[in-house]
Amino acid sequence: MTEQETLLEFPCEFPIKAFGKHAGDFEEHIYTLIKQHAPELERSAVSARDSRGGKYLAVTANITARSQAQLDAIYGDLSNDSAVLMAL
Fold first, then answer.
1. Cα–Cα distance between 3 and 81 in angstroms, integer?
2. Are the C-beta atoms of residues 11 and 69 closer than 8 Å to each other?
């Protein structure tokens, strides 16, 4: 999909969610991964929530998306990361 085909208008606020096992430094790992593509991302724009049983962690990073290519790169890295079970 090209930028002309996207329904988003850039720049825009965009939440990125990643789910993984609640172990180690998953939240920090996701922050670091996304920050590579969104250098302006502040730590305060990242939040985490435990699953009901505490086995999993959902991390949300609210970024200012600059392009579809930027979002594709972020989701590509998340999808290829062995610690990430699902990305939305």
1. 25
2. no
Q: What is the longest distance spanned by two Cα atoms in the chain?
A: 43
Q: pLDDT by residue (tens digit) across 22-77?
A: 988 999 999 999 999 999 999 999 999 999 999 999 999 999 999 999 999 999 99
Q: What is the DSSP letter of 45?
A: G
Residue range 13-21: average pLDDT?
Answer: 98
Q: Strand, helix or coil at 54?
A: coil
**Predicted TM-score (pTM) of this structure:** 0.90
Who's near 71: CB < 8 A, 6+ residues apart? 14, 65
Taking each helix axis as running N to C, give the angle between helix 26-35 and helix 68-80, from 0 to 180 degrees, rounded to the nearest 10: 140
